[in-house]
Structure formats: structure tokens, C-alpha cells
Amino acid sequence: MVNFVPLSQISTRLLNCNLQTLDIDDLFAVTEIHRDTFPESMLSLLGFEVVRRYYLWQFTGPHDVFSLGVFGDSGTLCGYCFGGIFRGALSGFLNANKYFLFWKVLTKPGIFLMPEFRRRFLPSFRLMRRERDTQFHLLQQETDQRKSFGILTIAIHPQFQGKGLGKLLMKRAENAAISQGFREMNLTVHPENTLAVEFYQKLGWEKVLDNSTAWSGRMTKNLVVENQRESSRAPS
Ligand SMILES: CC(C)(COP(=O)(O)OP(=O)(O)OC[C@H]1O[C@@H](n2cnc3c(N)ncnc32)[C@H](O)[C@@H]1OP(=O)(O)O)[C@@H](O)C(=O)NCCC(=O)NCCS
User: Fold this and answer.
1) Quick one: which atom of ligand 1 is closest to the CA of 187?
2) Torsion angles phi and psi, residue 94, rounded to 5
3) 20 CA distance to ligand 1 centroid (A)?
4) Which domains does the chain have, with CATH numbers?
5) Which of 199, 202, 205 to mutate to test the pocket of ligand 1 (most atoms within 8 A of CB)?
């Protein structure tokens, strides 16, 4: 039996923040935060409209999304987390926007040289080439993913980092996973994003070491073990 982490145990250093489920009305604010938080990402470099379409796909695609925002006292969005079960978070976005993206990439050919393009985007583009493979891949992915709740992205605006908001969002995502019966969570982070890796490790995430020589950025969190830790800490 897995229990909730009481949110009262998590302190933030931002007074009067509140958490709300995000919807399509928050698309512009989410896009702005993505661009300010990940200014060097491929999506950001391709421009506002590409980032907007990426998140639009996460809101409207065939996913079971947990999308939570943390708002400051003036109602400003300070950060967000997208988690859940995603069916083609990247490949579906590429497919739905292929002509637009093709045109955008042509206007910025330097993108082809970026390691992120080769690491994340190229495999998804290849997959799109044969629709049957894509369907098979998505089905396979779905079977694998049902076992584990994914964190697609978490971003706290630079102005609000280090105030406990990231931890708050991650704990809420964890509670959502637990309430849906998941025993495990997973995410992929850029292996060189050491600040984020340390943040996740501090929250009990572990690196998944596959057979390749270098760590690919996959991380996991065992919710059953976490629950045992939380229970042993709780006052009797
Ligand atoms: C990574 C990120 C989500 C963390 O959110 P945050 O609100 O700044 O972090 P918090 O203030 O909640 O910190 C939670 C804990 O992690 C620790 N932590 C946060 N950043 C850390 C870092 N760079 N190194 C070590 N520990 C760190 C804090 O010390 C804190 O520990 P405490 O509870 O004992 O005080 C945020 O900094 C961010 O958006 N970064 C840029 C985007 C990014 O890289 N996202 C992840 C990849 S998808």
C-alpha cells in the first residue's frame, strides 16, 4: 500500500503561492516560462510559435496528462510540471507540425549541428518515416509506460528558482502517480544538466544505467521504497 506525501511537510520560501491544474488558457504563460528557463533548447531557438505548438500538443494529444502550475501571489505563473502517460510527446508533435517545422528548420540550418537534434529529434523523425513502425512503437511504448508515470518536463522560472517550488511540484506529481496506482516514476534529463540531476537525486531519483558506456539521462523513482521511507519518518 502506497500513501500520499503530506504537502504540509514541504515548505516553500515563497509566501502565498498556490498550485493549479493547467489548461490550454495557460499556454502562453507556459511558453514564456519555457523560453526563459530553457533559452538554449532547440524548441526555444526555433521560436515562440514552435514552443507554443509543442505544449499545445501536450494539452491536446492523446495523453493522460498531469499538468500543474505554481502561481505567485499576483497570479503570475512561476513554474510548471507536465507528467503522466504520454503517447508520442515528441513524435506526435513532430508529425502534427511536420511542414511548419520543416520550414522553421530550413530558416535556421545551424539546428542540424546541435547535439540535441541528433539525440532527441533525429530518432523521432526516423520513426515518423514509416507509419506502421510508429503505430507499433506507440503501442509498445504505451505497454511499457503503463507501468511507470513519466515526468515530461519541469521548469521553474529563473527568478523563482531555489524557493522550494520545484520540490513542491515534484511531490504533487508523485502524489498523483501514487493515487493512480503507479509504483514507479521515470524521466529523462539531459545528462549534462547537472543542476537538475542533483535536484532529482536529492528527491530520491536514481540514474538508470543501461548497457551503453555513457549514462543516457534516464532516471527512475521507486514509489514503494519512497513510501516506506516516508512512513518510517512519520510520527507514531
Ligand atoms: C531544477 C529545478 C526544477 C529545481 O526547482 P527549484 O524550485 O529551483 O528547486 P527547489 O528550490 O524546490 O529545491 C529543492 C531541493 O533541491 C535542491 N536543489 C535545487 N537545485 C539544486 C542544485 N542545483 N543543486 C543541488 N541541489 C539543488 C535544493 O537545495 C532543495 O533542497 P532542500 O529541500 O534540502 O532545501 C529548477 O531549478 C529549474 O527549473 N531549472 C531549469 C530547468 C530544468 O533544468 N528542468 C529540469 C529538466 S526537465
Assistant:
1) 48
2) -65, -45
3) 20
4) 8-233 (3.40.630.30)
5) 199
pLDDT string in tens for the chain (236-residue length): 444 444 445 556 655 789 999 999 999 999 999 999 999 999 999 999 999 999 999 999 999 999 999 998 888 999 999 999 999 899 899 999 999 998 998 898 888 888 878 777 777 776 666 555 555 555 555 555 567 899 999 999 999 999 999 999 999 999 999 999 999 999 999 999 999 999 999 999 999 998 777 898 999 999 987 777 777 776 66
Residue 231: how many other CB atoms lie within 10 Å: 12
Report the distance separating Cα 55 and Cα 44, nearest Å. Answer: 12
The structure's pTM equals 0.87
Max Cα distance, the chain (Å): 62
